[in-house]
Every structure is written in C-alpha cells, then in structure tokens.
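Protocol step 4 of 6: record predicted structures for both targets in the notebook before any analysis. Target 1:
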Amino acid sequence: MGQDQTKQQIEKGLHLYQSNQTEKALQVWMRVLEKSADPAGRFRVLGCLITAHAEMGRYKDMLKGTTVSLQLNGQVSLSMGNAFLGLSIFQKALECFEKALRYAHNNDDKMLECRVCCSLGNFYAQIKDYEKALFFPCKAAELVNDYGAGWSLKYRAMSQYHMAVAYRKLGRLADAMDCCEESMKIALQHGDRPLQALCLLCFADIHLSRRDVQTAFPRYDSAMSIMTEIGNRLGQIQVLLGVAKCWMIQKELDKALESIEKAQELAEGLGNKLGLLKLHCLCERIYRTKGLQRELRDHVVKFHECVEEMELYCGMCGESIGEKNNQLQALPCSHFFHLKCLQTNGTRGCPNCRRLSVKPGYV
C-alpha cells in the first residue's frame, strides 16, 4: 500500500470513526498498519488506533499498539501512560507522563503539554492528591488561554472536565458544576460522545455528593447508555460504583451489591485494579452494616491484596495511599510517598527501589 492509498484509507477510517462506527474504523486502520509501507502513514494510523482504544477503555490494546512504534516520542509516552493508568499500574503511568512532559518542554509543544496536564490531573485524582488533581488541569486551562487560539475547543473542554472532577472531590460543588457545564456545552456542540458521557458521569457524581440520588440516577443512566454504545468499560465501572453508592444511601443494600457485582465483572475483564479496590471497599461497608463477618473479612483481605499489588502504600510510614486526600510527592524513579513523610524523614534514594533491588538470597 503506497502513500496515497494509505492517506485515503486513514481518512476513510476517520470518517467512520466520526460517524460512531468505531469497530469498522479500527478494522480499516489495522489493515493500513499491516499493509502500508509508508512510515509517516503508519505512525499516523498508530495514533488513530491508540486514541480510539483509549476512548473505548481498551488499555491492553493500547499498549500493544504503542509497542509497534519504533520511536518513543511524547505522544506515545502519553498514550502509554493513559494505558497504564487504566490498568492501575501507577508507577509506570507516572513515569510515562513525566517522559511526555519532558518531550513537550524540550520541543516547546504546548498542545502536548496541555494533554499531559489533563492526564496528570486524572492520575492524581485517582490516588487522591486532590490539590495536584486540580493544579494540573488548571495549568492545562492556562495553556489553552495563552496558546490555544487555533486549537480545537476539545482541549478547553477536557481541561474544564478534569477541573470539575477535582473540584467535586474537594467539595467545591458549585465550581465543579460550572466547569462541567462548560465542558458539556462544548462536547454537545462538537458531537463528542465520549466527553458527553464523562460529563454526565461527573454531573451524577456531583448530585451524589449532595446526596440527591433522585437527580443522580437518571444522569448515571444516560452516562451508562453512551459508555455502552462507545465501549468505554472503565467508564461503565465508574457509573456502576456510583449507582451502588446511591442505593447505599437509600439503604437498598442488595441492589447496591447487584451493581457492584456487575462492576466487578467489568473490572476483572479490563484488568482495572483500582476499580476492584473501590468495590471491595464498598462491600466492606455493606457487609459490616449487614453484620456478615465472613463476607466482611473476605473483602478486607481482598482490599489489602489490591493495595499490595498496586503498591498503593507509602514506603516510609507503611500507610495506604488513595484512601483519603493526602499530599503526595514523587521521586525521580516515579515511586510516590506522603509529602509529610519525605519532609519529616528525608531520603537517601528511594526506599521502594532499595527493597526491590535486594536479591532473594540476601533477604
């Protein structure tokens, strides 16, 4: 397949993708990747595949796609970071985001820097450093204001969405609603279904935070409808966990467990360990309320297994990370710790790396 035909096929795939025929678009792009001899075309189609897989929550497929690239540039580092984040492999995700950010700074690529800042906001929101979760999308919004005159409005919409998520987690619900409404307005104008679904989820979470479950339920339903349509399984997990919390507020614990069971099936299939950790945490609360000690112990054990597997604990104090809002600090190796622990104890190198480097025979 030559250069002209490669370009035509890429455009054909984009047309299908924009028409919400994602599976057909993926098939077209995969054929280009297999048959094209044009390096620039292959690299472009690789970016299309990675983006499509990201919006559908297919993080393992994203990682397969990124290994095809012969050159690890900023875009690929960002995509790999998002994939690792979807799989709850936090150290590798942060390492990739930092590589992408260095590439953006070294090449004065403000657009890439904006996208990395949004992903870092998502990263810190997941591990519950809400100050950084807000700082990075605010930085992205500044980049849009200063340099984004010719950019797609999607960059503004994404920065506003991630700001909304952080504001909600900080309890600033009015600010969260304002940002989410602006993001949704742009998403509707441009027919951006994946972003519409995320905004609906955020709206539902805001109403949940207000304990207004009757308003939250229909927004969760609308978010689930779009996420099922576009194949975003990670989003579906988040919706189901939100619905479970609504049922718990209404003391409908069996209905909450039904939602959690569906979320667990998706999380296990996707390999999303953070989703599993969250649902085990919810199950703990439910079975403690029900007074079912055996089931309670089972989920407590599974919760701590998830924490160990994801290395979601501070290597200095030993306490888990991600249970409550805490300021965190990453070392150059991308292991992260409580900021207060680093300030109190200092460090001569990374304690986590020292443990990993100890040979079994010398333990």
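Target 2:
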Amino acid sequence: MAGRALMRAVRVAQFGGPEVLKVDTNVPVPAPSDTQVLVEVKAAGVNPVDTYIRSGTYAIKPPLPFIPGSDVAGIVKDVGSKVTKFKPGERVFVSRKMYVADGYAEYSVAEETDTSTLGESLTFQQGAGVGIPYFTAFRALCYVAREKLKAGNTVLVHGASGAVGLACVQIAVAKGLKVLGTAGTQEGMDMVSSQGAAAVFNHKEPDYTEKILEETGGVGPDIIIEMLANVNLQTDMTIINKNGIIVAVGSRGNIEINPRLTMQKESTYTGMILMNASQVRRRFSNWRKG
C-alpha cells in the first residue's frame, strides 16, 4: 500500500489487567501476502477471550509483545495477488479463528477466507461484533445441537444477555424455537426480551429454575446453551428435558456433577469451541441467505 508506513496499535508487552494495553504510535503497517486482505480498521470487537489472553489465563499464550483482537470491520485498502473476492474500497468484517490476530490497530491483515462483505445496513461497530459471537452461536445451535434444533422445541440460553447469548436468541427465534433466556439484571432481561425470547428469568433469584420448569410444562428445555458451565452444569442436568442436549459454550473452572442425572434422562452434555470449526463462515453465510 502506497502512503503510510507507520500506524497506531494497541500492544501488550506483559500479561495483566487492562492497564497493560498500551498505544504504540510507531508500528509498521502490515503488508498483505498473496492470499490476504489489508483492512483499514474502523471498529474492533472486544470479546471475553481477548481479556483472557491479555491476562495470561487462557490456554493460548502468545509471545510478547503482541497486538490483540480477532474481530474487526473496516474498508479494504489493498489485496494480495491471489485475492479474487475483494477489492480496495469495499466494506468488510473479519473474524479469525486464531484469537491473537492484530485487530487492535489502524490496519490489519486477514486471509481472504476470514473476510466477509459487510452489508450497507450494518455499521462498522455492528460488523466488528459479528464474528466470534455469531459464529459461536451458529456452531452451538446449528451444528452441535442440530438434532434438537426443530421448530416448536424449547431452548434455554443460560446467560442470554451477552453477545453470544443474544446471537443464540436471535438465531433460535429465526428457526422457530421457543426461546427462554436468563440474565442477572433487569436491563439484561429487557434486552433479551427485545430479541424475541418468550420468557426471561433472573438467574440471581433462588427459584428461577422452578419458573423455567413451569414455563416448559414441567419437562424442561430440549436444548440448553450454557455460558458458565462451572456454575450451572449441575442445574442444567437437573432441568433438561429427556433426551435433551446441553452445549457448554463457556466455563471458568471446575464443578462437581452427578452423572446419574444424564442416565435418568438419557441426556447429552457436550462442549464446543469455535477454533475447532471448519468453514463455519460459509455455513453461516448460507444459512443467512436461506
């Protein structure tokens, strides 16, 4: 790219809290390889995994210093010689399976396969919020829980007011499921309701699981998308419907469970991580078109 040689970027030189995020004004503008797109970043997504990596508590510990950030949205400034789908000036959003991907910068390079067209109806801020949240929600519901993803079935999004949770609510509503959600504040509950959930419960109330069972006629949800398995998994196993499936999207520690609960209901518990997905972008794009 002719023009600027240096850019501003947020770099991490040591693991820790938000204070380790430092702006560096003398970072070289990256050059795209033959298969890459150079994006002028207009907005960058901040996902929980970004904070885990920054703090050094995640399984992946990148060499220091590094520029965090996987999800960005912006304008194509340059493309590699083998790139065929994009040209300079186009609006795009980017989400990379490798979570440390130099997104917190004025310019960022991404593989063509990790880049998608950003529709004119979406802002750059919205585009930067698509990648990890929506691809994770899509994989959890439409791939891992696909056998139960049927119109009329009930899904509980356990922790629905976060980005992944809201994406799960939207996708499940679009698929014709009865959607139940939980949140910890009235503001969060209202947000979940606004996205089409049939009922929302405050998971800080001691009797909220009883209310969930009442809402499902006593049988429990067919699918549970779990955002904090180390806290809620035993509860999920108790309230899931017979032959239902629990998909753990997030967990921050250990939990003791009673395996007999899965035996009694012949339910399934499984986990997922977006990093294991292959071609999730193409499948998500095809689902949206359908």
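Step 5 preliminary note on target 2. The chain has nine helices and 13 strands. Residues 131-144 form the longest helix (14 residues).
Proceed to step 6 after PI sign-off.
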